[in-house]
Amino acid sequence: MKKQIIAVLVVSSLMISKAGFAAEAENQREHNEELIGVSSGIVLGAVVGGPVGAIIGAFTGGIIGKSVGDEAEIKHQQAKLSEQEVTITQLNVDQQSLALLTNQYESAQDELIALKQARDQKLTELELNIQFKTGSSQLENHFQPQLDELASAMALSQELRLDLTGYADRRGESTYNQALSEQRVAEVKSYLVAKGVEEQRLDFRAYGATAPISDEQSFENDFFDRRVTIKFVTEDAALAANH
């Protein structure tokens, strides 16, 4: 009977001191874990070795309780790490996809530039002649669709300009022929501007009858001399020609 009373007193004292220490040194969560461990340790110690076993069991139970709390924290931290690994994996996948899309975009952009350059090169190789009747600067209707196509091409190729050059045949006085070639250029220029071509992208000049196609004058050659010649030119070529 006395042994049982002593055991109860020792256990009560231990629980009081242990609870006070936990309240000062640890937070509420750790305190609860400590109490759980102490209680289970006391029961285990008392059953095994009486009062002395209860004391040893109390310390052992505290360690067990602390270990249980640490294990829960470890599992929580492992769960967070798993979530972060999933996020990192997804970011890596997204980054690889972004890199792939970037490469595809750059390749498509390079291909587009090459296609534009090839198209502009072909356009600069073209030459269109607009013919006129004798002594006239009126634009014939059957030439208008061709000028419409030129205007559309200019809208697509912002890097290009148009060079307009007016001529006249060798019939008539030189002063008259010069004025007539200038009027023909002005007629074509006005039509293109009306179709949306910016005037600053048009270079124009007139030579009258001073630059015939052939040295031999004939009815056929005079027909071809009454013209405005239109060529696509690059910005660099236009600057070089003006200097």
Explain the overall architecture.
The chain is of the alpha+beta class. It has 2 domains: 2-72, no CATH class; 118-242, 2-Layer Sandwich (60s Ribosomal Protein L30, Chain: A). 70% of the residues lie in helices and 10% in strands. The chain has 6 helices and 4 strands, in the order ααβαβαβαβα. The chain has a 4-stranded mixed sheet with strand order 1-4-2-3. α1 (2-25) runs parallel beside α2 (28-124) and α3 crosses α4. The longest helix has 97 residues, at 28-124. The radius of gyration is 49 Å and the shape is rod-shaped. Residues 1-26 and 28-48 have low confidence and may be disordered.
Helix fraction by DSSP (H/I, runs of at least 4): 55-70%
Please report the distance between the alpha carbons of the first and last residues: 125 Å
**CATH fold assignment of the largest domain:** 60s Ribosomal Protein L30, Chain: A
Sketch the topology as an H/E string, one letter per element: HHEHEHEHEH
Total domains? 2
Name the average pLDDT: 77
Q: Which CATH class of the largest domain is shown?
A: Alpha Beta
CATH architecture of the largest domain: 2-Layer Sandwich
Number of helices: 6
Tell me what portion of residues adopts beta-strand conformation: 5-15%
**What's the β-strand tally?**
4
Looking at this structure, what is the CATH superfamily of the largest domain?
A: OmpA-like domain
Class by alpha and beta content: alpha+beta
* Largest sheet data: 4 strands, mixed
